[in-house]
Design goal:
Layout lengths: L2 H9 L7 H19 L2 H4 L2 H7 L21 H15 L4 H12 L10 H27 L26
Helix pairs in contact: 4-5
Length: about 170
């Protein structure tokens, strides 16, 4: 016999059930509906992650809400759930971001790097490469020093500027 049939047999009609039993049945039904209404795939959808990429995680991991940390971040999951619920209510991306800013302050918004932030490391790398190549070129271009014949004595030269082969 099922649980509901057993309860109705014991108490008669459902309306004559004690309020505690009715509340428990309603609570179990609501929890079941809530459990099936949303699953992990909904929180990992592209729409949720698109909005999550615009918001910082506040747990201190220095990631966005769209991060895929191993083991999962509880704050990211909570915020993705909130984003999903707002999308189900019909809010667009900007409205969701504005709501998060109103609730948690402007520091939650991820500011994408500008042109300087994207190009800067490549410019620095190029300048460093040019400096290294210039330094290598200067060291290779130096003329070798001719060793002296005696201790501190300069080599004998001919009036034409060459070294005298007779010495």
């Amino acid at each position: 016999m099922s649980g509901i049939q057993e309860i109705t047999r014991k108490f008669g009609r459902a309306s004559s059930l004690p309020p505690r039993v009715l509340r428990s049945c309603v609570l179990v039904a609501l929890m079941a509906v809530a459990g099936f209404a949303q699953n992990g795939a909904d929180l990992e959808s592209t729409a949720v992650l698109r909005v999550g990429a615009r918001l910082k995680c506040t747990c201190g991991c220095n990631q966005t809400v769209a991060c895929q940390m191993p083991g999962g971040c509880a704050l990211c999951k909570k915020n993705r759930t909130k984003i999903y619920q707002m999308q189900q209510m019909g809010m667009n991306d900007q409205q969701i971001v504005d709501r998060f800013v109103a609730e948690q302050g402007p520091a939650i918004v991820v500011i994408p790097p500008g042109t300087g932030g994207v190009v800067g490391p490549y410019v620095a790398l190029g300048m460093g490469l040019v400096l290294v190549l210039y330094t290598i070129h200067r060291y290779r271009a130096k003329k070798p020093v001719v060793a002296a014949a005696g201790m501190g004595a300069a080599p004998e030269t001919t009036p034409g500027g060459g070294i005298d082969p007779a010495t």
